[in-house]
């Protein structure tokens, strides 16, 4: 062995573990790591404009690849800015590793410059948070970080890296790559599942979440289609199976098809694969209650700690998603007759997702989404943050095989643009669309600079109603007519796009949207459609007038 700096050892471990990209805002607290990255051409360094964008991009990259998205930020405000993205990765079960440059070890606990106890700060929102004080142990910590971030329920790991530790020159033994743990389901449990299916009359599957990947999507779609089982996607997991599958029944969460909700209520057997059955998917734990009387729940999850944690599982199955899906897809049960409900549920979803024009609406987003469906390829990646604007795409967009949806289940604002930048860099040959509201967009609009710097190709559909629309909707429902703190004064978004070297156009009428989209398709780089809508049309399902009348 030869001596290396802690920064060199750290970067070597990332390379060994297969890391090919890191996102960062540079800080003086980890200059030794940046210096080592200078000599690591296999690792692409993406410099962002704010640490929130850094963490959101790392989360998106983790979702797209199934490998930990890697981020570097500095201490104090850098780490606290990035904490929002760590929380997203935690709630979304995304593999991610965040490195936080820290103050010198000798100055710990003196409340030095930008000092924070990072293991304590991140402990509630990370799978593991620790501090590396000995450069010799960096390989151990990195190998463990990869194992923790990817095993069981995937999630974020946060490692504080003291500045002086990264400068230490020591001998250290590299650790080999950490392979994924592939746990197949118990054959007896699968046999029991098919026994329950034979006794069921109205089964429904709810899919997507921890460890879900393209292989799981492919095999589970084949299984469900063969047996005619309606498949509902958990909240913002709409690419869990390709939406053209003949048993895809739509999404749960906010604004689902009432007919799908009724199917879930009337189901005698619920097959939940990957989903945690969180608050959004279950409509506040009411659509499916934790004890679900009268319903049998089969819960399949890669982490045994999730099985029985909130929901009573009549048949808990701990397995990797792709392993489980492949086993059930290949399982032959001659006495199990196909159900008719799957294709019926799919027809109901097709009708629900077909936008009907709304009278008196100058810019109607439903037909705009239909125009996007007609103009853009099936593998388009749609990225969005939080806001009522997203409901039009959740309802009317048809998602192709995963990964085609990047949307935070934690409901954080400002996610869509950083995610779209990460998606464009990862899949440069595919169409990437960021859908954002006006309030949502400006929370991380500065990452247009990152898109421009790295030549990212993306289309931004910016829905501008001059309001924090979701909060305005709740405000009108609870306190009709008493508008406070939800009105926004916005810039000229077209000029903003142009300031970053992009192209933009203002869209005010429904009939102008398709032409604007065609013009965007004919260009590359940053393309922004500034869609000006009426706040009266507060969601795809209601208006402010109706809320006040209620």
Description:
This protein has 550 residues and is an alpha/beta fold. It has three domains: 4-170, Thiamin diphosphate (ThDP)-binding fold, Pyr/PP domains (Rossmann fold); 187-349, 3-Layer(aba) Sandwich (Rossmann fold), CATH 3.40.50.1220; 355-549, Rossmann fold (3-Layer(aba) Sandwich), CATH 3.40.50. The protein has 21 helices and 20 strands. The chain has a six-stranded parallel sheet, with helices on both faces. The chain has a six-stranded parallel sheet with strand order 11-10-9-12-13-14, with helices on both faces. It has a six-stranded parallel sheet with strand order 16-15-17-18-20-19, sandwiched between helices. α1 (6-16) packs across α2 and α1 packs parallel to α6 (138-150). The longest helix has 16 residues, at 77-92.
Compact description:
With 550 residues, the chain is an alpha/beta fold.
Helix content: 25-40%
Known CATH architecture of the largest domain: 3-Layer(aba) Sandwich
Query: Gap between N and C termini, in Å?
Result: 74 Å
Report the portion of residues in β strands. Answer: 15-25%
Basic shape? globular
Structural domains: how many: 3
Low-confidence stretches: none
CATH topology of the largest domain: Rossmann fold
Keywords:
single chain, 550 residues, alpha/beta, Rossmann fold, six-stranded parallel sheet, 21 helices, globular
């Amino acid at each position: 062995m030869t001596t290396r700096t802690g920064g060199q050892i750290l970067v070597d471990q990332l390379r060994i573990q297969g890391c090919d990209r890191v996102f960062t805002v540079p800080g003086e607290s980890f200059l030794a790591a940046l210096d080592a990255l200078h000599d690591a051409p296999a690792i692409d360094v993406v410099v962002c404009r704010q640490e929130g964008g850094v963490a959101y991009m790392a989360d998106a990259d983790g979702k797209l690849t199934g490998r930990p998205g890697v981020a570097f930020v500095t201490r104090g405000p850098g780490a606290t800015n990035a904490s929002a993205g760590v929380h997203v990765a935690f709630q979304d079960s995304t593999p991610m590793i965040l490195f936080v440059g820290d103050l010198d070890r000798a100055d710990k606990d003196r409340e030095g410059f930008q000092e924070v106890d990072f293991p304590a700060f991140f402990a509630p929102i990370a799978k593991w948070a620790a501090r590396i004080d000995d450069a010799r142990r960096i390989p151990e910590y990195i190998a463990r970080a990869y194992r923790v971030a990817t095993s069981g329920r995937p999630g974020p790991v946060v490692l504080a890296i003291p500045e002086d530790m990264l400068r230490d020159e020591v001998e250290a033994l590299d650790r080999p790559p950490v392979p994924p743990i592939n746990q197949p389901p118990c054959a007896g449990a699968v046999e029991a599942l098919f026994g329950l299916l034979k006794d069921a009359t109205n089964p429904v599957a709810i899919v997507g979440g921890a460890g879900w990947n393209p292989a799981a999507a492919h095999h589970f779609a084949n299984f469900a289609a063969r047996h005619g089982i309606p498949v509902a996607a958990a909240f913002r997991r709409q690419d869990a199976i390709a939406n053209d599958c003949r048993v895809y029944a739509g999404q749960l969460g906010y604004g689902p098809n009432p007919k799908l909700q009724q199917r879930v209520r009337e189901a005698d057997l619920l097959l939940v694969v990957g989903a945690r059955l969180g608050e959004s998917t279950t409509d506040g734990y009411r659509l499916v209650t934790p004890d679900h009387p009268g319903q049998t729940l089969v819960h399949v999850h890669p982490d045994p700690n999730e099985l029985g944690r909130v929901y009573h599982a009549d048949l808990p199955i701990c397995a990797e998603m792709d392993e489980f899906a492949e086993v059930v897809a290949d399982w032959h049960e001659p006495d199990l007759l196909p159900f008719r409900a799957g294709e019926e549920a799919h027809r109901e979803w097709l009708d629900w997702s077909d936008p009907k024009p709304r009278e008196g609406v100058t810019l109607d987003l439903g037909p705009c989404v239909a125009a996007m469906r007609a103009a853009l390829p099936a593998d388009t990646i749609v990225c969005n943050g939080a806001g009522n604007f997203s409901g039009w795409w959740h309802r009317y967009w048809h998602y192709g095989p995963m990964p085609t949806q990047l949307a935070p289940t934690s409901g954080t604002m400002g996610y869509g643009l950083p995610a779209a930048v990460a998606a464009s860099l990862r899949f440069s040959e595919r169409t990437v669309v960021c859908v954002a509201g006006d309030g949502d967009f400006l929370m991380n609009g500065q990452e247009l600079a990152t898109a421009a710097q790295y030549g990212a190709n993306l289309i931004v559909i910016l829905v501008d109603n001059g309001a924090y629309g979701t909060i305005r909707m709740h405000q009108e429902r609870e306190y009709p007519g008493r508008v406070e703190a939800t009105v926004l004064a916005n810039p000229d978004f077209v000029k903003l796009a142009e300031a970053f070297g992009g192209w933009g156009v203002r869209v005010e009428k429904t009939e102008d949207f398709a032409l604007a989209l065609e013009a965007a398709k004919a260009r590359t780089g940053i393309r922004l459609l500034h869609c000006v809508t009426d706040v009266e049309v507060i969601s795809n399902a209601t208006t402010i007038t109706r809320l006040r009348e209620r």
